[in-house]
Amino acid sequence: MTLHYVRLGRGDPVLLLHGWPGFWYDWRRILVPLSDVADVIAPDLRGFGDSDKPDLPPAEGSTPRVLADDLVALLDGLEVPHVVVGAHDIGATLAQTLALRHPERVRALALFNPPYPGIGQRRFEPSAQREFCPRSRALVALGGRPLRSI
User: Fold this and answer.
1) What is the structure's pLDDT at 142?
2) What is the rounded distance in angstroms from the CA atom of residue 99 to the CA atom of residue 106?
3) Greatest CA span in the chain, whole angstroms?
4) Which domain CATH number covers 82?
């Protein structure tokens, strides 16, 4: 399995994981500024962008565990012992799996719009769709008092 990645900068390594249906380019606006202070690595996950696309059913070839193992292999190949991980959407689920399975490799996590790993198939139930749909309106409240609509 070959993973395509973009790497810029010097310093402490930062691994940026894209969401669905993205690829490394999702991070384009922060790659250069962040590379002033860090060694930034932005891979295309397996099956995305220019990375290999396995001829396997998703339940075999694209699980968080398999994708986390891909990232460990990438870090090993780049001789990067540990990283700070910034991740979005499904990348955030993958980042959590990476941290749980390989805690020695992850110094910190910054997760953006993360679905939580235990959601399972409930994510696809009609009753749960309002929780995940970006177009749905939610009320952010503090102490029962509405603060703002998002």
Assistant:
1) 34
2) 6
3) 51
4) 3.40.50.1820
What percentage of the chain reaches a pLDDT higher than 70?
77
What's the number of domains the chain is made of? 1
The pLDDT value given to residue 62? 87
Q: What is the DSSP code (8-state) at residue 102?
A: -
Cβ-proximal residues to 83 (8 Å cutoff; 6+ apart), any chain: 13, 14, 15, 41, 75, 105, 106, 107
Q: Nearest Cα to 38, choosing from 3, 76, 83?
A: 83
Kindly state whether residue 125 falls inside one of the protein's structural domains. Answer: no
**Is 14:41 a contact under the CB 8 Å cutoff?**
yes
Q: Once rounded to an integer, what is the mean pLDDT over residues 25-47?
A: 96
Catalogue the E-assigned strands of 9-121. 12-17, 38-43, 83-88, 106-112
36 in any annotated domain = yes
